[in-house]
Amino acid sequence: MAGTDLTSSQLALGGVPLGSSLDEEESFALMDAYVASGGNMIDTAEVYANWLPGTQSISECTIGNWMKSRGNRNNLIVTTKGAHPRLPTMEISRMSREEITEDVDGSLRRLQVDTIDLYWLHRDDRNRHAGEILDTLNNLVKEGKIRYFGCSNWTANRIQEAQLYAESHGLQSFSANQPMWSLASVDPSAMEDRTLVVMDEELLHLHRLDQLEDSLKADKVRFTEAEIAYLTLLDDET
Fold this sequence. Notes:
The chain is α/β, with parallel strands linked by helices. It contains 7 helices and 6 strands, in the order βαβαβαβαβαβαα.
């Protein structure tokens, strides 16, 4: 993962059903099989699966119990998402410093770890300056609660706003993005949840340019200025 010391397996395991539609025994067996196949990142979130009755944040709790049982925390990229609106009030964002910190602290307890390797913001608040949010995340890095952070359901413009703020203030910025990306074309106007952001041309363009820039910085490939201009033009035309 560019800009980090994290190396993720090609496939992450989705953690939505862990502890809910799959009981603990079934969840442990699934995670054991995933790790045995070379996987090292289980995608979960504070909100999984709070839409069902029972223990809140059961996915995180189940992963935490499994890691403790197996003693394998150091073999995994421990990751989770937070700052999701409360389900009954999806129109009310939870992106203040206090709310993000509250979610991080809760995830640390449930996952039974001292630090989270990759922490994702599950939603955005476009009425809040991206710099304020980055300041909060960088403070959490300084406190040792998280190591790197990413975003989910952020638009290309908002990601760029965050990147520019980080660059101009000498701060750590997003290391990854987790959009809704499907082989099928998604019509955002047909989705009930208006806080979701799907992969669109702007986001795809941003990712392609970032990938090119990362390759150049790492000296993995060598392009002339003319070749870079041509690749950028090709991307603009797709």
